[in-house]
Amino acid sequence: MRGSTYLTSRFATQGFTLSCRHSVPPFSGHRQPETVVSVGNSEIFHTSVNCVIMKIRSCAGITKPSLLLVHSELPALTFHKAKLTWTPTLKIPGNCERTSGSVTRFRCSVAGRTFSSTPVSSSSSKPNTVHLNRKQVNPSSLYSRPSLSNMKKERIANRAKVYEFLRVLGIIPDELDGLELPVTVEVMQERIDFLHKLGLTIEDINNYPLVLGCSVKKNMIPVLDYLGKLGVRKSTFTEFLRRYPQVLHASVVVDLAPVVKYLQGLDIKPNDIPRVLERYPEVLGFKLEGTMSTSVAYLVGIGVSRREVGGVLTRYPEILGMRVGRVIKPFVEYLEGLGIPRLAIARLIEKGPHILGFGLEERVKPNVASLLEFNVRKESLPSIIAQYPEIIGIDLQPKLLGQRSLIQPIIDLEPKDFGTIVEKMPQIVSLSKNSMVKHADFLKGCGFSLQQVRCMVVECPQILALNLGIMKLSFDYFQMEMQRPLDDLVAFPAFFTYGLESTIKPRDKIVRKKGFQCSLSWLLNCSDEKFKERLNYDTIEMEEMETMPSFDMNSLMEPRSNESDSEFEEDSDDEYV
User: Fold this and answer.
1) In sequence order, which residues have a C-beta less than 8 Å from that of residue 503 and are 6 or more positions away?
2) pLDDT in tens, 517-527
């Protein structure tokens, strides 16, 4: 046909040839496109076709594709006994496979048999090939991969196995939901075995099950190696991890090293860094510009010497985790309210920074109330706390009751006098019964009556805690060299608190040489400078004859001096022996 475009597909099977020629005439009027089907040498011409015209952008052998392809649907045609069905279809992306520069695939059915032609590629001139009785392959199978649902099911199954393994060991995995865990039981077993080698038990793991999310090689070993290089003792690893297992999640470079560098910048000596970490491992989790910096700044602001900060933090690093507004400031202000100057509080913190850890509401305030209950005068509270800060941090009520019950039968003490003893020596609340009995027996052995012993203890309770050997030497000198009556010691029992060689002997010789007659108080209860002034007096001033040395709050506010290369000190026993 003139002016028409022909597209021919040929199929061969079982001794005869099926040829389909589809003509597309130029658009003019209402002329129908023609489709010619040939079987063998016979040609069937069919013009009654319902057409859908589509434009193909590329076609084999056509440089500028502008081919119009007709989609025709023909009724079944019968030739002899063979049933012929012709369906040239363009399906995108169903039965039609589009490739670069190719024509769509045609499908044709003859007597129930399906034949299909392969697309013609612009890069190949091979004729179409007929595929018999072969299922058409879905194009998406070319990019086949495991479905997301299958992958999810596999993860759930693996996690269920790991959970069951943990439950068998006694580990409760409830808190592990959402945490990335090993996909196999073997890897989880490796982590648990490693934690066991560090000394952690199943109970420890249950206290912080998230530790099971840490990889042995990526997390645990690098962190522990770093701590070991700093000087943290391996023997402390178990307790270290029990207190702060979160350290195993940390990055050495990002999290740990900056904190160590910051601590060194606070004048904590390098040799003390591992001891600080052992005592307070939680410090490794603090932000540099958070609680740590504000607590240090506040302490310096109330009078703690800047050069003392390193020692304070070394001995009590828990300060770095204390909030100023909730802990430190209320504590300082309460002590100020009792009558202790702020600078004196700063000195108390320098000497014993652990006092900041005394709970204000839970311990400090109840202890102050207990002291008042046991006949301690309110005006004596500053002196008591300044002499023995621990008295506001211990469980005081039962100690007061116990000590009063112990000392009463030993020296026949009146209940009202117990408050006076606490005012003069608050450490009495921690004094052992054995010490009190031995010292009372010594005084009685020196010739003092029970009443005199009671008076001496009420006047100077320190004599119940002194070294008995030194007391014996002082008493021998008093009796043999000074040859004074026992009443002088009853009047001034603090005689036993002065050094025999440094104070008592030198002053006694000077006074006897000058021919002075003075009390023990006039002789001893003054500084060396004041004693030299007294020697120039013609007479002894009665107002200078103080009966007992008193605690001087001003002496507390004097700056401390560094005496050690390392500020770290082991906890000491508070009890006097």
Assistant:
1) 524
2) 889 999 999 88
